[in-house]
Structures are given as structure tokens and as C-alpha cells.
Write a structure and sequence with these properties.
globular; 5-stranded mixed sheet; two-stranded antiparallel ribbon; alpha+beta
């Protein structure tokens, strides 16, 4: 299954195109084990963002391993968090300008974000500080907000591991695409 998913929207909004063999299906199709080995915990990293996200199966779903929906839901939720002062402080001038441009682009699609959000959900995308939209972690990605795939890259995973931090869970690298 090939999927390009815009992480600005919740995974419950996933729809497959009419030309896809999965046309008419929604996010329920993503409730499948990530791999045949059904890992109990994984870590997601990317060259496109500085964070690592550890994911376990959703206990309310009754699954024993991480599902593809767990991956998308965790990525979406983590990237909707407001950017912290420390994250802003580590960004250079070019990255800061990119963050502001991405936030401004996101503000132009606010009506679509609101329409595709789950009713009653806590959507941080819409919070304003003063009269400005908050900078969110999703803005760190610039225009590369589409989830494209997960790959294994042991060399990159090892380079991202903090010395002395011990053995990490199974690590996957997230690849993104421009929209």
C-alpha cells in the first residue's frame, strides 16, 4: 500500500483516491501491524526534525504490536505541539524564517484543517497568542509535511543515538515529501 499523508490533518481524515484499489476506505485500513514481527515499541527519527518519538501499541485498541495507524497518530500528535523556547533558540536565522513561512502557509489552510478535524478534538493548530498563530513542531518541516514512508537506516540511527543512552528500541527513519 502506498500512502502520502499530510501530517497537518489528523489520521482519521485519511482518504484514498478514487484510482486507488483502497478507494472508499479510510483510516481503519491503517489498523494493521507495522511489520510481520509486530514490534512492541519503536522509535521514529528523521533528518528533517531533531526529535525522536517512541511509540508503543495503543492499549485501548487491544493490539499487541505497533500498527501503521499508531505511527501516523503519534507523528501527527507530536508535530501539533507548540514549538518550545529551546527549540526556537536552537534554530538559526534561516530555520526561523522557514518556521514563520510554514506557520503562515498553515494559517491559510486553517478552514480546511478545521473542517477535517474530529469534532470536539483538542486542536492546537487554532491557538493564537495575541493575534498570531502559534509556531508548531509541524512548521519545522517547512513544506515537507507529507509522510511518505519509513525506512531502516542503521548508520543514521546510530548517529542520532545519544552516547551512553543504552540500546534504543527498533528505530525507523521517517521520510517526508513536499506538498
Amino acid at each position: 500500500m502506498s500512502l502520502v499523508y499530510d501530517l497537518r490533518f489528523p489520521p482519521t481524515s485519511v482518504e484514498f483516491s478514487s484510482t486507488s484499489p483502497y478507494a472508499g476506505c479510510g483510516c481503519e485500513l491503517l489498523f494493521v501491524p507495522l511489520t510481520p514481527e509486530r514490534p512492541r515499541q519503536i522509535r521514529l527519527i528523521s533528518p528533517d526534525f531533531p526529535w525522536g518519538f517512541d511509540i508503543g501499541p495503543d492499549p485501548s485498541a487491544g493490539e499487541e504490536g505497533v500498527t501503521f495507524l499508531d505511527v501516523l497518530a503519534t507523528l501527527h500528535a507530536a508535530l501539533q505541539c507548540p514549538l518550545t523556547d529551546t527549540e526556537w533558540g536552537t534554530a538559526g536565522n534561516d530555520k526561523r524564517a522557514s518556521l514563520i513561512r510554514a506557520r503562515d502557509r498553515r494559517s491559510m489552510i486553517q478552514p480546511a484543517l478545521q473542517a477535517r478535524s474530529v469534532p470536539g478534538a483538542n486542536v492546537l493548530n487554532h491557538r493564537l497568542v495575541g493575534r498570531e498563530l502559534l509556531l508548531l513542531r509541524i512548521d519545522w518541516l517547512g513544506s515537507r509535511v507529507a509522510f511518505m514512508r519509513l525506512i531502516k537506516d542503521e548508520a543514521f540511527a546510530k548517529s542520532r543515538l545519544i552516547p551512553g543512552s543504552g540500546e534504543p528500541p527498533e528505530t525507523w527513519v521517517v521520510k517526508f515529501k513536499r506538498l
